[in-house]
Write a structure and sequence with these properties.
alpha/beta, single chain, Rossmann fold, binds 4-nitrophenyl phosphate
Length: 188
């Protein structure tokens, strides 16, 4: 039986700089790892000002210099995303608070985690908003995302390996759907 893809959503404020970049970086890493088929990847913004717009030209140019094409169009996060996705990764504290506020007190499928918690080389607590700054900010975004997305992928692969081992290859023993525990915590 084909495994359902793991669904990953990156979230920032406008969905034109950081989260489309995260989407592009993660997709690029998946392609390099031969894992594109195993994931469904998207991005969204907590705000709606840029809905329908392509990623910021400065962000696209910086990504392209690293061989990464950003092709997404901005959309606004909606409550249903918390049940459509397995993992929601936020860029900063404001995004995290906004996603949690949207989630409310009810249960939901997705884990909601600051993406920088997956960094293995950088010590950043958030991915700084580059929108009002200079070109160096866009490079920093890509540096942090490259590190964080690699850490995220390593962790998701490790978890998938554990789940496969626990399954033991036999008929399903538990019978319940997986991943629907309404995780509002901060661990993937
Ligand atoms: P993002 O950056 O959240 O990384 O997409 C921003 C884009 C637009 C605005 C702010 C941040 N803005 O104020 O329009």
């Amino acid at each position: 039986m084909a495994m359902a893809p793991t669904r990953v959503l990156f979230v920032c404020l406008g969905n034109i700089c950081r989260s489309p970049a995260a989407e592009g970086v993660f997709l690029s890493q998946l392609e390099q790892a031969g894992l594109s088929h195993a994931f469904a990847v998207d991005s969204a913004g907590t705000g709606g000002w840029h809905v329908g717009h392509p990623a910021d030209a400065r962000m696209r140019a910086a990504a392209e210099r690293r061989g990464i094409l950003l092709t997404s169009r901005a959309r606004q996060l909606e409550r249903e995303d918390l049940d459509r996705f397995d993992h929601i990764l936020t860029m900063d504290e404001d995004n995290l608070a906004a996603v949690r506020a949207l989630a409310g007190s009810g249960s939901h499928r997705a884990t909601v985690t600051p993406i920088t918690s997956y960094c293995r080389r950088h010590g950043a607590s958030h991915v700084p908003d580059p929108y009002y700054g200079g070109s160096q900010g866009f490079e920093q975004v890509l540096d942090l995302l490259d590190d964080a997305c690699a850490g995220l992928l390593a962790q998701l692969e490790a978890k998938a390996g554990e789940a496969e081992a626990a399954d033991g290859g036999g008929p399903a023993s538990g019978g319940g759907p997986d991943g629907g525990s309404g995780n509002g915590g901060d661990a993937a």
